[in-house]
């Protein structure tokens, strides 16, 4: 037997005898690793003259291949054995009783977000998202609130310690409006999206929590006007509250990112001491309740998002999801939304088997 044959048969018998994957790996290193014996033989080729190399190389290459093949084959065998052993110890007790019923419930915020996604999908809106840890530019500057803008003060912003590399300060987004900018920049126009998500402000009482939920709407296209906004909001609110008796009042307002800006109020009646949506707020015994902010997207915002405001225009709106849930399902303290009290969740939660659909009703009770 030549020297190489001896090495090969020795390697093959040791590989065949390897007890487990660790032992096999140690053998791989011993033969084929950087300092391995077979690797060492391969290195000798470099020092030979061309004739000698041509003569010796095929046998050394073949040895390397044979050892590699033996390692791979043994690895397959050991892995299969390991899996067998694991399957033999993992058992499933099929005699355990099934739970009596669904245990958890869908949180009203998730429910309302699902309802809104369903309603807006029917109107041709896609769902967009953006980061909750946002930079100053998207949250404020690109929305026409430069550094010194007084509207910034109204946002009670949670800022991160100033460590940002480019000087763009990081913060917890105070509204979902930055998703408008991100979507226009990423996708161009036309745009038809809603953006639901968490937002943060340093504020806390019965109707304010430091984290709450908003849903943003954005439509950008050619020749979009306030009429489209009003129709969209009316259609959405009628579907959401499941009544045609919704009367809106559009009130001139101001947001830096819209021009003109409108606040939208909805008429309600007082029935047995409770507010019930419906009818004009001007009727006797009725009132108006502020529901959401909206307007025609300011051309500065369209420009900063990389689109030509002479070609593209549109409308946007932002509404509090928690507030919509309270109005529709009758909770009166926002803080309970985030207490995680199972009794509250059992009472106000929804069945996970009841997906909101337009045909089946978007507000089925658990
Ligand atoms: N971002 C505003 C806020 O959180 C709400 C809002 C108002 C959003 C008007 C809009 C809008 O898109 O057009 O207070």
Features:
single chain, 2 domains, 20% strand, 366 residues, two-stranded antiparallel ribbon, binds 3,4-dihydroxyphenylalanine, BirA Bifunctional Protein, domain 2, 11 helices, alpha+beta, elongated
Helix amount, in percent? Answer: 25-40%
Radius of gyration: 33 Å
Total DSSP helices:
11
Class per helix and strand makeup: alpha+beta
CATH class of the largest domain: Alpha Beta
What is the percentage of strand-forming residues? Answer: 15-25%
How far apart the termini lie comes to: 81 Å
CATH topology of the largest domain, by name, is BirA Bifunctional Protein, domain 2
Structurally, how many domains make up the residues? 2
What profile does the largest beta sheet have? 8 strands, mixed
Uncertain segments of ≥5 residues (pLDDT<50)? none
Mean pLDDT over the full residue set: 91
Tell me what the CATH architecture of the largest domain is: 2-Layer Sandwich
Order of helices and strands, N to C?
HHHHHEEHEHEEHEEEEHEHH
Q: What molecules are bound to this protein?
A: 3,4-dihydroxyphenylalanine
Oligomer: single chain
**Strands, count:** 10
**CATH H level, superfamily name of the largest domain:** Bira Bifunctional Protein, Domain 2
Which geometry do the CA atoms define? Answer: elongated
What does this structure look like?
Helix 5 packs across helix 10 (321-329). The protein has helices spanning 3-17, 21-32, 37-47, 50-89, 108-122, 136-139, 178-187, 226-241, 299-304, 321-329, 342-348, and strands at 126-127, 133-135, 170-172, 191-200, 211-221, 248-255, 258-271, 274-277, 286-297, 313-320. The strands form two sheets. Strands 1, 4, 5, 6, 7, 8, 9 and 10 form an eight-stranded mixed beta sheet that branches. A two-stranded antiparallel ribbon has the order 2-3. It is built from eleven helices and ten strands. It folds into two domains: 2-89; 108-348, BirA Bifunctional Protein, domain 2 (2-Layer Sandwich). It is elongated and about 110 Å long. It has 366 residues and is an alpha+beta fold. The protein binds 3,4-dihydroxyphenylalanine. 3,4-dihydroxyphenylalanine binds next to strand 9 and strand 10.
């Amino acid at each position: 037997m030549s020297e190489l044959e001896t090495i090969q048969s020795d390697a093959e018998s040791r590989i065949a005898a390897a007890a487990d994957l660790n032992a096999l790996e140690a053998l791989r290193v011993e033969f084929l690793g950087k300092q391995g014996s077979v690797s060492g033989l391969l290195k000798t080729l470099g020092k030979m003259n061309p004739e000698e190399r041509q003569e010796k190389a095929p046998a050394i290459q073949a040895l390397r291949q044979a050892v590699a093949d033996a390692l791979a084959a043994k690895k397959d065998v050991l892995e299969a054995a390991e899996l067998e052993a694991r399957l033999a110890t993992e058992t499933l007790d099929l005699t355990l009783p099934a739970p009596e019923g669904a245990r958890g419930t869908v949180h009203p915020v998730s429910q309302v977000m699902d309802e809104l996604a369903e309603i807006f999908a029917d109107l041709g809106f896609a769902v967009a998202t953006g980061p909750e840890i946002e930079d100053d530019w998207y949250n404020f500057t690109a929305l026409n609130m430069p550094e010194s803008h007084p509207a910034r003060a109204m946002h009670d912003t949670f800022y991160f310690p100033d460590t940002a590399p480019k000087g763009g300060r990081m913060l917890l987004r105070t509204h979902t409006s930055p998703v408008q900018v991100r979507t226009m920049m990423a996708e161009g126009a036309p745009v038809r999206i809603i953006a639901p998500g968490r937002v943060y402000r340093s504020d806390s009482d019965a109707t304010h929590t430091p984290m709450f939920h908003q849903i943003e709407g954005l439509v950008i296209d050619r020749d979009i006007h306030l009429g489209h906004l009003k129709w969209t909001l009316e259609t959405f609110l009628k579907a959401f509250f499941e009544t045609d008796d919704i009367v809106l009042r559009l009130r001139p307002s101001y947001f830096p990112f819209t021009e003109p800006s409108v606040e939208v109020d909805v008429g309600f009646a007082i029935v047995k001491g409770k507010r019930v949506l419906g009818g004009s707020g001007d009727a006797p015994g009725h009132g108006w309740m502020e529901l959401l902010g909206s307007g025609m997207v300011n051309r500065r915002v369209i420009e900063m998002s990389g689109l030509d405001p002479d070609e593209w225009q549109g409308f946007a709106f932002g509404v509090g999801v928690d507030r919509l849930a309270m109005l529709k399902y009758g909770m009166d303290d926002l803080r309970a939304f985030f207490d995680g009290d199972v009794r509250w969740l059992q009472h106000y939660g929804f069945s996970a088997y009841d997906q909101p659909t337009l045909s089946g009703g978007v507000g089925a009770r658990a």
